[in-house]
Structures are given as structure tokens and as C-alpha cells.
Amino acid sequence: MNVVVVGAQWGDEGKGKLIDILSQDVDITVRYQGGNNAGHTVVVKDKEYVFHLLPSAILHKGKVCVIGNGVVIDPKALIEEIEGLEKRGLKVLVKRFKISGFCHIVMPYHRILDGLRESKRKNRIGTTGRGIGPCYADKVARCGIRMVDLLNPNLLRSKLEDNLAEKNETFEKVYDTKGFSFNKIYKEYLEYGKRLAPYVENTALYLNEAIDKKKTILFEGAQGTFLDIDFGTYPFVTSSNSIVGGVCCGSGVSPTKIHKAIACVKAYTTRVGEGPFPTEFTTELKDEIRIKGNEFGATTGRPRRCGWFDSMLVRYSVIINGISELAIMKLDVLDDLDKIQICTGYKYNGKLLKTFPMDFEVLTKAVPSYETLPGWQSTTCGITRYKDLPVNARKYIKRLEELLKVGVKYISNGTKRDQIIKR
Ligand code: IMP
What we know:
Layout: E1 3-7, H1 15-22, E2 28-31, E3 40-44, E4 47-51, E5 64-67, E6 72-73, H2 75-87, E7 97-100, E8 104-105, H3 108-120, H4 132-140, H5 153-173, H6 182-196, E9 200-201, H7 203-212, E10 217-220, H8 246-251, E11 260-266, E12 269-271, H9 285-292, E13 305-307, E14 309-310, H10 311-321, E15 325-329, E16 339-348, E17 351-352, H11 360-365, E18 367-374, H12 391-404, E19 408-412, E20 420-422
Parallel strand pairs: 1-10, 1-11, 2-5, 2-10, 5-7, 6-8, 7-9, 11-15, 14-16, 15-19
Antiparallel strand pairs: 3-4, 12-13, 16-17, 16-18, 19-20
Bound molecules: inosinic acid.
């Protein structure tokens, strides 16, 4: 069975933990989009690991991890991640880790351009500053540099010369800053190519052959549905397809070979960066939940914006991603509340909206309608059987299932690997 795990909100739903658990039972785990803007945290026996590019399944001995062609790679960041793991005693073996030669490379000018573009915008996106948007923009503009190009000195030279001629002119004339020197980048990126070469191959062929041999695959989404370039809250999104549909283009595996999609959702909602967020807390709850849930970005450390669970938003995700199972993460963060609200719809100009709005202005001005449920005010942390959850916690989950029209299979109630209920 080949399964996809995606985030159904704005990212940071806790996918890292679920993927860490599910990847124990599959042969191969694949990243298919995004770059080191992502941050997946996994806690194993009091040791915390934060992954930005490596699939978190790298922690399981004997399992294979793949970075698919849809991912953009900052080679310096990837090498640091590999070396960081090796320092902690985990060797990243070539037979266990594969990188697609088609991955586009984040270059130093992408990172700088990311910051400069943000500084000029009237409406800042609040990017992670990792150069992700400019790198994907070059991919689509057909001037990007790919992993396989780092292994070919002549091709790299010619592509880099072309890119710098254009980029340096932009830096100087549009942004009034100095451009980049060819030699420094050329040498540095050839070295990265040499270091990563043993891992590089045509991973699309590798994955399809593995499927033919009845190996099982878990596809690990980064970010979340509402950061998707097509279906997210554009323009406050990332530059890739983070929805289930992104798997096919980002890995070379056909939709006919994917069997199930699981969505990860937080028991509430968070968002990092700018953009509309209808159920965002305006009361002191925003600090309370942020502190209890440790809601600070795993990549940038920025405080996350927090709010109530939005079923209008997540139901849309369920539809777009064809979700058949839900994982509710961080239920324990709500343990102390006496009342819990769920957004069941939006009103705009006094009228109830039937579907998730396409118009940015409507979404920005939408007023959420809430249903209030009693809290459970006791700890759920560490409970392993669904029936042992407080009755009001079960009522909350049941109501979410009704609103979202899909069943909840996993309930996470703590940061550790074993703090999860499987139904
Ligand atoms: P970019 O992907 O760095 O271009 O940032 C675009 C938007 O996506 C910003 O609002 C970021 O905060 C958000 N974003 C990117 N990656 C993540 C993530 O892994 N979790 C949550 N938000 C993210």
C-alpha cells in the first residue's frame, strides 16, 4: 500500500511525528515538494531531531529515504543535516538515501532575492527567507540549476554564467546592491556536487521499480494544503504543490499507484507568516495556546499565530486531497480549556457562505460562525486507548468527524513517539 500524508491546514500540523510512526511499516519514505523551509520535529526517547530536507524516516535503520524531483535543495543545508546526524551517530548510507538528479538547487542569489523581494512588497508574504520562491520561479522560467548539473562542470559553468549575467544586472539596477562573483559560487557548488554525487540517481525509476517489486512507499508532504501554490490562500502561500496531487509531479509516481491519503490536523489551528486566518485568537488565548503548544516555527523560530479549529477550512482540504483518514495532533494542548469552539462556517456581508471562498477579500473579511463545546479539563497526555479519553474529548473528536465527513484514525497527545492513540 502506498500512502500519502499531507497537512490539512497551514503546515506545522505535526506531520513529522506521524510520518516517523508510519514509516516504520513501509520500505521507502519520499519527500516530494518544498525545501528547507520545512521543519519536521521528531522526539525519540528524550532526543529531539528537527529535519528540514531529509525525510524523518532516516531515523529508522534499514529504511530507504528519497528526495524526489519536486523538492528544491539547498545543498549546504542538506550537507549540514547529513553531517549533523552523523555526529549524533547515525550514518546516512548511500543505499538508504537517494536524491533525484532533477531536484532544483537553491543558489545564494535565490536567498538574497527572497529577502529583497519581501522588502519591496506592500503586502509581505512573511517567507522563511530560504530562497524557495525564487528557486521555483527559475525552475518554471527554465533557467534553474539542477542537482545533476552540479555533477557536470561544463554545464554548470554555462548555466551559472547565464544566470549571473541576468541576476547581477537585476541586483545592481533594481535593488541597488552588489551582484555575485562567478568563481566563488562555481567552486563552492562543484564541491557540493562532489559531496552529494553518491546519493544522486533517477529516483522516479528507482521508485517505480520498487513498486513493481511490491515495496511500500510513504509520501511525506511538507507545509500544508493552505500553503499550496494553487489551492492555498494565494499569494500568502509557498511556491510548490503541497497537496496530494503534488506527489505525482514531485516523484514520478503515477496516481494509479497511490492508494490512500491521510491528513494531519492540529486540534486547533496555527499559521506562520502573513495572510488571512479567519479563526485567529484575538484574546489572551493566543499566548496561552502558543506557550502550551510550543508554537514557534521549527525553521525560523517565529511565533506561530494560533486560533480555533476551522472545519470550513479542513473540510475543503479533505475534498481537495481525497482524504480517507485523519490524524488529530496535539489534542493535549486543549486539556485545560473550559470551553472549546469549532468554526462551522463563514459569514460574509451577513450571508452564510456555502463553500470555502475563492476571493481573497471575502476570506479576509469572513466572520467565522462558531459552535461551542464543553472542554474536558483533565489530562489526556499519554492515554493510549480511545475509550479512556475523557467523554468531552471524545465528543469533540466525534463532532469534528461529523463536520469533516471523515474518520479520525490517530490522536496524538504528547510530543513523544508513543504518545498516540490508534483506532
Ligand atoms: P516560503 O515557503 O519560505 O516562500 O514561505 C511562504 C509562506 O509559507 C510563509 O507564510 C511561510 O511562513 C510559510 N511556510 C513555508 N514553509 C512552512 C512550513 O514548513 N510550515 C509552516 N509554514 C511554512
